[in-house]
Write a structure and sequence with these properties.
Layout (H helix, E strand, L loop, with lengths): L3 H56 L4 H4 L12 E6 L9 H15 L4 E6 L1 H8 L5 E5 L8 H16 L5 E11 L2 E10 L23 H76 L1
Parallel strand pairs: 1-2, 1-4, 2-3
Antiparallel strand pairs: 4-5
């Protein structure tokens, strides 16, 4: 049976841990508010840009020049580019584990065909020991991504695809659903879905008037579409990370309270048993003297 001193030390240790997890929860909650505002503000822009791109694509559907755009080219997926967005830190529940499992399953389905771009320390550290082909890595941007990072990555992916280095580009990230829910998304960035032609073209959501030929507009809008999707994925991942960390630290704080309560109850029982034993010894000694 542990002594009272050992139990008190353990209770103190758990209380110190509880203070840390509570502080981490508060920090994550403060960062989540900012990240959540960014992702919610970016979603309407991405949606409207997609609608505009669909309208331009429908208008340019009959153009051979538009159909010949290299970002529409569909090839056999002999060499695939995978971009994995993980966190730089842990203490976020299953946030990183679910992403890594999805990436590992993707690699297992295409053995020897995938080169991976790793963003975040957790994904980098995991796959560094697995001897996979890594085309690039970057850390320190998961919690506060910028447009410059998304722009640079988007341009690099477009360059590799148009140069024929890869036949398809996929992106794995966590989408922010709510504070308690994140969903792993496997998104295909390139090639972009083939533009509709002829009678299959859907009616445009808005009636745009184009000063330039739609095919020329596509040459500008398609690369920007890839960059916007990458940037949106970074924002979704950042918000999901802060939400997962806040939820995990809240659960850890609650578990610490339960452990402290149980240890305190156990300590009281041990102390009461010690007192009862001393009383019995005193009474037995007094009875023996009589």
């Amino acid at each position: 049976m542990p002594s009272l001193i050992d139990i008190r030390r353990r209770i103190k240790s758990v209380k110190n841990t509880q203070q840390i997890t509570k502080a981490m929860k508060m920090v994550a909650a403060a960062r989540l508010r900012k990240a959540q505002d960014r992702v919610l503000n970016a979603r309407p822009y991405a949606r409207l840009f997609g609608e505009m791109l669909a309208s331009v694509s429908a208008a340019a559907g009959a153009s051979e020049e538009a159909a010949a755009n290299p970002l529409f080219a569909v090839r056999d997926e002999k060499k695939v580019q995978l971009v994995l967005l993980t966190a730089d830190r842990g203490f976020a529940g299953g946030f990183n584990t679910n992403l890594i499992k999805a990436a590992q399953a993707f690699l297992n389905e295409r053995p020897g065909q995938v080169q991976t771009e790793l963003y975040g320390k957790k994904g980098r550290d995991y796959f560094r020991r697995r001897h996979i082909e890594v085309s690039g890595e970057l850390t320190g941007v998961s919690e506060n991504p910028t447009w410059d990072i998304a722009h640079e990555l988007g341009q690099a992916l477009i360059q590799r695809y148009t140069a024929g280095e890869v036949d398809a580009v996929y992106l794995i990230f966590n989408e922010f659903k709510s504070v308690l829910s994140q969903q792993v998304i496997l998104q295909k960035l390139l090639p972009i879905a083939v533009i509709p032609t002829g009678d299959s073209a859907p009616p445009p959501a808005r009636d745009y008037i184009y000063e330039q030929p739609p095919a020329d507009l596509l040459n500008v809008l398609l690369p920007r579409s890839v960059e916007i999707q990458v940037h949106q994925a970074f924002l979704e991942s950042a918000a999901a990370e802060h939400a997962a960390r806040m939820t995990a630290m809240d659960a850890a704080t609650s578990n610490a309270s339960e452990v402290i309560e149980k240890l305190t109850l156990y300590m009281n029982r041990v102390r009461q048993a010690s007192i009862t034993k001393e009383i019995i010894e005193v009474v037995s000694g007094a009875a023996a003297l009589e």
